[in-house]
Amino acid sequence: MSESDPAPAWLVITTLDDPDAAERLAGHLVEAGRAACVHMLPPGRSIYQWQGRIEIDSEVTLLIKTSREAWPELRATLHDQHPYDTPEIIALPIEDGLPDYLDWIHECTR
Length: 110
Prior knowledge:
Blueprint: E1 9-16, H1 19-31, E2 37-40, E3 44-50, E4 53-67, H2 71-81, E5 90-94, H3 99-108
Antiparallel strand pairs: 1-4, 1-5, 2-4, 3-4
Organism: Thioalkalivibrio halophilus
InterPro entries: Ion_tolerance_CutA, N-reg_PII-like_a/b, N-reg_PII/ATP_PRibTrfase_C
Protein name: Divalent-cation tolerance protein CutA
């Protein structure tokens, strides 16, 4: 892809409460070609409302880089393999970036 036509790419965010499960899921996404890269942030504290109560939990955040074409399969995989009943699965379009990096995302997720 040229600089004027970068590969459409997405940043997908999800969280898990178990670092080992997060690493397994991240590895699966990359091996399956659903993601070019998954960056795991160290556990942080999440404060959220769930079923009428305020909850506080430790969670690992996954930053998943994927292509627009791979997004539907990635979303389905996350939904099927995520341990939460209602997982956070948020996709943000990457409007701009280093063209070579965007090309790499596209190549890894064909």
